[in-house]
Specification:
The complex is a heterodimer of chains A (351) and B (633). In chain A, the strands form 2 sheets. An 8-stranded mixed β-sheet of chain A has the order 2-1-3-4-6-5-11-7, with helices on both faces. Chain A has a 3-stranded antiparallel β-sheet with strand order 8-9-10. In chain A, 28% of the residues lie in helices and 19% in strands. Chain B has 633 residues and is of the alpha/beta class. In chain B, 55% of the residues are buried. The chains are: A alpha/beta (351), B alpha/beta (633). Chains A and B meet through strand 1, strand 2, helix 2, helix 4 and helix 9 of A and helix 1, strand 10, helix 9, strand 12 and helix 11 of B.
Chain lengths: 351, 633
């Protein structure tokens, strides 16, 4: 077998999507459908953040599509005044892939949850990331199945007592950021639902990234897993636990009291006062190994949680390459249907 | 010297003179060997020679699911059967007139199909003790009289002769020996007076990058020809005149290729880009292979991570305004069920190709069956009707694919296209259509609000077709959301209203029931038949051939073959009611018969077989004759 060098240039995530000069407001993105999440659901916060953020992109609304799977978060498209498809459980990345391949003029967003993306749809998620389809995937992680009323999910902690695991869950959870990086994702970020500014910044970078962008959003389910991320919402606790990374900047947190340093093949947290300034790791979103090590600093018990953009690197996208192949084929050979049907060996029967 | 027309068997008691040429109206040849022996290629080349000569023809490859089963064993036997004639034939033939057996396994696996008096050509070089033991021959069957008493046996040391012919090429013995299939082809080409230029040209093109191998194959091919010409061990050669086919330009085509071309044509005739989302599966993969070669027609092929992603991508592309296609076989169709349901609910065009194979589960991947009909009809949760279309022969796959596209695009629905392994890999001459005459499949996307209140309602239907508007993302002012949840009639908003759900379930059913399909045509030349045989799919050939045979015996019979399994043609009920008896032969346990019984309350008689092989005309002839006699009594 031979391999062909595709040699495609990399461009911005939104290149090809028509823009408008008309000013847009958040309310332009609200549909006429009544939002039906439970009171206090973290999904409201994310919805508001997205509706406030999209106008800043200046895109034509009709060129934005939200595709979702099944689950509480997957009702998201109904509330957006854009095009949208609420599809089937776990399959949104596959459907969105077909759409993105067919339509370079669309900004395609996938809304999914921990069960949808990591359990039933795990296969599609990793392959979408590996292919680097130009999709923005918002993974709402509340560490529980909400719509089916409270079973453990693939991000629930071991031993979790739920309706389906009265004696405790036996499953070891995924770290979604590690998983995405292992799947060769070119963009991986994380934010907490309550942190509007942090979430918006990750969304902005995701939108500008050409290729698959996975954004894990910690999201509270007030009914079945209330308070799962409370330690990240208490200002004092958060200060000691949240490590927000910014490309090109030394990684410190806790008001500068703590820093991230190298330890063996991984990373560790140290008191800034105890380490030399040059030992503090400077974040490089192009460095896959660093991104992965950062993902391992985040623990299920949230003792430390890295937020921001772990990885942001350029690689040819699947949809651009697929379209390029078609264009090159068209340029190389005219679409002569009659010639195709005749092929090389014909014979003629006279009347 | 030429003599009578027949099937090739020597007339009793008349020893043939060398140089005798006998005219035949039809011949069935089966090439059988180890799966590494190149039998498919050999058969394919002979087919091309027959096509170039102007015979009508039909072919049937039969190969193991294993790519290279252990050499010389029964599971490793691969064969290719070819039927060519001077008139229009319908099947690849029940039994071979000529069997070419390249090794003991091929002989053992196929000899029972060779009728008494048939021609058997054996490559003796492989008849070693070890190879004989491998397939359970206690003694060499070529040594005793068991074969020569029953068949016209020709023992040819094909490997030795091939190696001898290639002695001066500098090729190693092993490489030289590999060309023995071309020796066999050369010999058969001589026996049947076939043109040879095409094969020599083909070999030189195929091995263009290895000129020494190309020359070796050409030499082996010529050696086989010369062997027949010079040795006089073959007293007789045979001629099959060109067939009197309808006027026009023809080519040889397999079902999978014709189906792929139908998809290309549907893309061109609709003006839509085509997106094939699929996953490799036998026997459907060749559709992917073929379409991936034609990107210049605006075709995108996406080999997905699994069957579900394949159809998901196709549906996503359709949502974006492309013609979404997915191709699979039975096990893959099972995986695609949920997405087909989403297509039914979102009412988007989608073509789902199922090249059926033996089931259930992994079943018989390389063998044929028609047992996915009920899966296609009902294999989804809820009331989830989809149109079902089936091609009846390899060449017919082109028209069937275009018809599936027409229904998908006009009615905004997933369409099931049910081919099968026999059609997919079989081939026949195809009267190439004039591109000017292909149907127009162009579509109109929604561009304006359609509702009385000045907004856009995605589920406001065309009153004639009941199709909903196709409003693709990027259309200003028509932003809307669709999905798998039940829709309110008209607005398409989520609705849990009981009466609305009842209404929508019936509406979706009515849309599919109302699809315009052509009336079924009944073939009853005498007009006196009291028995109707109804078939669908690849059984068209054997049923048609069987019907001809019983008519020749003076028994009228009517044959109706269904292209449309859902909805049925509107005249089908009336047609059925005209006959005393309805017989339904199927390669399943009676799935169409069940549908006909349910819909028309007809006491249809089911004749079924699930051996992974097509029906034989002979067996259906007996079935029909029995039924006709029963009705006459």
């Amino acid at each position: 077998m031979t391999a062909t060098e595709l040699g495609l240039p990399t461009v911005g995530g939104l290149v090809g999507v028509p823009t408008t000069d008309e000013p847009q407001k958040a309310k332009d993105y609200k549909s006429d459908q009544e939002v039906r999440w439970c009171p206090g659901c973290g999904d409201y916060v994310v919805l508001n953040a997205v509706q406030s953020f999209l106008p800043t992109l200046g895109l034509k609304r009709e060129n934005i599509v939200f595709v979702s799977g099944i689950g509480c978060s997957s009702r998201f498209p109904y509330y957006m005044n854009t095009y949208g498809m609420h599809s089937i459980h776990g399959r949104a990345p596959a459907i969105a892939t077909g759409l993105a391949v067919a339509r370079p003029d669309l900004s395609v967003w996938v809304v999914t949850g921990d069960g949808d993306a990591l359990s039933i749809g795990g296969n599609h998620l990793i392959h979408t990331l590996r292919r680097n389809v130009n999709l923005k995937i918002l993974l709402f992680n509340n560490r529980i199945y909400g719509l089916t009323k409270g079973q453990y999910s693939p991000t629930s902690e071991e031993g979790k007592v739920t309706k389906s695991t009265p004696l405790g869950s036996l499953d070891h959870p995924f770290n979604p950021v590690s998983l995405a990086l292992g799947a060769e994702a070119t963009f991986v970020g994380r934010a907490v639902d309550s942190d509007r500014a942090g979430l918006t910044e990750v969304l902005r970078q995701a939108a500008e990234h050409r290729g698959s962008a996975l954004v894990e959003i910690y999201q509270n389910c007030p009914i079945f897993n209330d308070g799962a991320f409370d330690v990240l919402k208490d200002a004092e606790e958060a200060s000691r636990r949240i490590i927000n990374v910014v490309h090109g900047q030394p990684i410190t947190f806790g008001g500068g009291d703590y820093a991230v340093v190298r330890a063996g093949f991984g990373l560790a947290v140290a008191k800034t006062a105890d380490v030399a300034a040059e030992d503090i790791v400077v974040h490089d979103a192009e460095d896959l190994n660093l991104a992965f090590a950062l993902s391992r600093l985040s623990t299920q018990d949230l003792q430390h949680t890295v937020t921001g953009v772990f990885r942001n690197t350029a690689r040819t996208t699947y949809d651009d390459a697929a379209r390029e192949q078609v264009e090159q084929a068209k340029a190389a050979k005219p679409a002569d249907l009659s010639a195709l049907l005749h092929g090389k060996d014909t014979w003629t029967v006279a009347g | 010297m030429t003599t009578d027309v027949g099937n090739g068997a020597a007339p009793a008691g008349s020893p043939e003179q060398p140089g005798t040429v006998r005219k035949l109206d039809r011949v069935v040849i089966r090439f059988a060997g180890d799966s590494g022996d190149g039998m498919q290629l050999t058969g394919d080349r002979f087919t091309s020679e027959a096509a170039a000569f102007g015979n009508d023809l039909a072919t049937q490859p039969n190969f193991p699911a294993e790519i290279r089963a252990p050499q010389g064993t029964l599971p490793g036997v691969s064969s290719f059967q070819l039927h060519f004639a001077d008139y229009d034939i319908l099947t690849p033939g029940d039994r071979p007139d000529v069997l070419v057996a390249m090794n003991p396994a091929a002989l053992k696996a196929n000899i029972e199909d060779l009728p008494k008096g048939g021609i058997l050509i054996v490559n003796t070089d492989e008849f070693t003790k070890r190879n004989l033991v491998k397939v359970g021959y206690a003694a060499d069957p070529l040594e005793d009289n068991s074969l020569t008493e029953t068949y016209q046996v020709h023992k040819v040391a094909m490997a030795t002769l091939t190696i001898g012919a290639l002695e001066n090429t500098g090729l190693g013995k092993k490489d030289a020996e590999r060309a023995k299939n071309m020796f066999a082809l050369g010999l058969l080409s001589w026996m049947y007076h076939r043109p040879t230029e095409g094969t020599e040209r083909f070999l030189r093109e195929k091995f263009a990058k290895k000129p020494d191998i190309a020359e070796a194959n050409v030499l082996a091919f010529r050696a086989g020809w010369n062997y027949g010409e010079t040795t006089e061990s073959f007293a007789v050669t045979y001629e099959v005149a060109p067939a009197k086919l309808n006027q026009g330009t023809y080519r040889q085509i397999t079902g999978n290729t014709a189906l792929a071309y139908g998809i290309v044509a549907a893309g061109q005739q609709s003006g839509l880009p085509v997106v094939l989302g699929t996953y490799p599966i036998t026997p459907a993969s060749d559709i992917l292979h073929e379409l991936s070669k034609h990107k210049n027609f605006g075709i995108t092929t996406l080999q997905a991570e699994d069957e579900i992603a394949g159809i998901g991508a196709a549906l996503g592309a359709s949502y974006g305004g492309a013609l979404g296609i997915t191709s699979t076989s039975g096990p893959g169709l099972a995986l695609k069920s949920e997405t087909i349901g989403l297509g039914v609910m979102t009412e988007l065009p989608l073509i789902v190709i199922d090249v059926q194979r033996g089931g259930p589960s992994t079943g018989l991947p390389t063998k044929t069956e028609q047992a996915d009909l009920l899966q296609a009809m009902f294999g989804r949760n809820g009331e989830s009707p989809v149109p079902v279309v089936a091609p009846q022969s390899p060449a017919d796959c082109f028209d069937a694919a275009m018809e599936a596209a027409r229904i998908a695009l006009v009615y905004r629905t997933p369409v099931l296209l049910l081919s099968d392994g026999a059609i997919a890999n079989g081939s026949e001459p195809w009267l190439i259509p004039d591109v000017e005459d292909l149907p127009d499949l162009s579509v109109t996307f929604a561009t304006e609000p359609n509702a009385p209140d000045g907004t856009f309602w995605p589920y406001l239907r065309d009153p004639e077709t009941l199709a909903r508007p196709w409003a693709v993302p990027g259309t200003p002012g028509l932003q809307h959301r669709i999905g798998g949840l039940e829709k309110a009639d008209g607005t398409g908003n989520i609705s849990y209203d009981p009466a609305n759900h009842d209404h929508m379930v019936r509406l979706r059913q009515r849309k599919i029931d109302g699809i315009e399909v052509p009336d079924v045509v009944v073939d009853d030349p005498s007009g006196e038949a009291r028995v109707l045989v109804i078939g669908w799919g690849s059984s068209y050939g054997p049923i048609g051939a069987a019907a001809r045979r019983v008519r020749k015996l003076g028994m009228p019979v009517a044959h109706a073959h269904l292209r449309h399994l859902n909805p049925f043609p509107k005249n089908l009920g009336a047609v059925i009611s005209r006959y005393d008896r309805v017989v339904v032969p199927e390669m399943n346990l009676g799935q169409l018969a069940m549908l006909l019984r349910a819909k028309y309350l007809v006491d249809a008689m089911s004749y079924t077989k699930v051996q992974g092989l097509p029906f034989k005309a002979e067996e259906l002839q007996d079935v029909l004759a029995d039924v006709i006699k029963g009705v006459s009594e």
